[in-house]
Sequence to fold (479 residues):
Amino acid sequence: MFTLRFAFKNITSRKSSLVIIAFIAVSIGILVMANAVFDGTGTGIEKTFSANFTGDIVIRPKTDFPMSLFGDETPATGSLSELPTLVPFTNLNEYISGSEDIEITSGQITGQSAVSLGSLKRYAVLFGVQGESYVQIMSGIKILEGVAFASGEKGCMISSRLKEELESASGKTIQVGQELQFISSNGSSYTLRSAPVTAVYEYCVHNEIQDNIILVDSDTVRGLLGIESMSATVDIDSAHSTLIDDFSDVDDVFAQDISLEADDSAAEPSVTETVTETPAQEIQTTWNYLICKVKDKSKINSVIRQMNKHFSENEWQMEAVNWRTAAGMAAQYIYWMRLIFNIGLILIIGTGFIVVNNTLIIAAMDRTKETGALRAIGADRKFVAVEYLCETLMLTVTAGLIGIILGYIGNGILVNANITFTNQYLVQLFGGNSLRTVVTQSNILMAMGLSLLLAVIGWLYPVHIALDTSPVVAMEAVR
Fold:
């Protein structure tokens, strides 16, 4: 307690303290405000993608190339790569269906094609999905006309913006129920498929990427890509299994001596009663991705860890990723922008702190006699070191708190300014047409952590100078 009072007495008498506090406080305030803006953009991008494309969690195959929901993102050659499928999907589906954390899932298979409307041919990214469940996951999709196609039903859904673009370029109208043609090429051959438009929809936040996407039933996309459609094994009803049970093995089927006697009485062949099996529901197993919606958003990261642990234990070549990874480069650039900005700001603060540190060193040198006198009357090295540490902590922590307050005030000014955007890139960054900044707990903790780091750095060299002071030399200087 004496050390703390002594340190406080010394720090309040130092005129340079106000300069140090002001510099650090302004730097921390700028850092808090900048990260509040980036937190706002992060929330906006998450809303843009998770509500429109990615859901909460995406399960995808492990690959040697960068892969997102839009396909292979390898520069130049990415569009030519064939995407792997989830194997074993049946086991994966059973595992996900038994999870209490997952609310709903939808498979997706991604492809590229040209959509044909009259003489118009336009490039499009096709998302082969289960229409109804996909729309339930993507809360950002609002259907304007028609309905989403059901699982196993042929159909496609297009955005209102893409509809307007196609109509304007072709001079033809698109109505619900009208057939759209899709053309894909594989070398010298072409594959043609068609699907009726079942719905026209819009996204809650517009993104240029959305203008290239058409939601199509998965079988149509598989046909365009030349992918074999496979279904899970279906149990046969016991009432219909007697025909199989009559034979002990496959060879018995062909071991029966079946002959027809050629007499007049056998001219009319006997009619054998046939058994009609009730159709069983098939589960499609050929998917590039499985998109999941989580019941509790706060558990997304823990659910991803649990999934990946289960996949690893069972040696399944797949992984669960969050929305940012699933969206690919389109969403990750804001993360790198934030990281680069923070590094740059920290470097600027570090450069400025060199000046601050020099001030602390000069102050320590000016107090050489005082420190030596304390050593002479019995103060040990630990006392002196703690005294200087307390002084530096008082400066930096006080400056950090003031900086956080300044950041809050600046954030409030930005929010109340009601800044709006018309640029589509800013709209998708902030998830809307207005600026939304958020001061998060992690933002505050980072600012205080930086303050403490500056305290330690600013304490090291001045205390080294103070401890190098010889008590004898100091006492002679006093005389």
In short: Confidence is low (pLDDT under 50) at residues 1-9, 75-80, 236-281.
